[in-house]
């Protein structure tokens, strides 16, 4: 069974909690992604995740000032993550249970080292059945 490090996208684009929402939204647009891991300190420790939906629901629809709002105003703190040494099966299970399409990968110290997406599992995981089950589980509404 491959490990998370074997299929993750290494060195993902990330942001900091004190970054502006405008800057992060622009990064998402330029990178064509809908979520970013939020890191802290020189050790790049994972502290949150922010999605385009978070920005819309928590800042824009919430009546916040988009020019002064910060990532901390919209992010989900303490996100679920897997470690580099975890089996891909574990990552798939977490993604299914939490209904997330992108999962941060950290080292033993909590430093962000990668991210696993549905596409990574589909193209690198060599698990057609698992990929189908994952897509179905993530797409279910509670």
Model description:
Helix 4 (88-98) runs parallel beside helix 6 (128-139). The radius of gyration is 15 Å and the shape is globular. 38% of the residues lie in helices and 23% in strands. The longest helix has 12 residues, at 128-139. It starts with a helix and ends with a helix. Helix 2 links the parallel strand 2 (15-16) and strand 3 (35-40). The strands form two sheets. A four-stranded mixed sheet has the order 1-8-7-6. The chain has a four-stranded mixed sheet with strand order 2-3-4-5. The chain is built from six helices and eight strands; from the N terminus they run αββαββαββαββαα. It has one domain: CBS-domain (Roll), CATH 3.10.580.10. It has helices spanning 4-7, 21-31, 52-60, 88-98, 118-124, 128-139; strands at residues 9-10, 15-16, 35-40, 45-51, 76-77, 82-83, 102-106, 112-117. It has 142 residues and is an alpha/beta fold.
Kindly summarize this structure in a few lines.
The protein is of the alpha/beta class and about 140 residues long.
Strands in their spatial order, largest beta sheet:
1-8-7-6
Number of helices: 6
Distance between the termini: 30 Å
Question: Into which percentage range does the β-strand content fall?
Answer: 15-25%
Shape verdict: globular
CATH architecture assignment: Roll
Strand segment count: 8
User: Structural class, judged by helices and strands?
Assistant: alpha/beta
Detail the topology: elements first, then pairings.
Elements: H1 4-7, E1 9-10, E2 15-16, H2 21-31, E3 35-40, E4 45-51, H3 52-60, E5 76-77, E6 82-83, H4 88-98, E7 102-106, E8 112-117, H5 118-124, H6 128-139
Parallel strand pairs: 2-3, 6-7
Antiparallel strand pairs: 1-8, 3-4, 4-5, 7-8
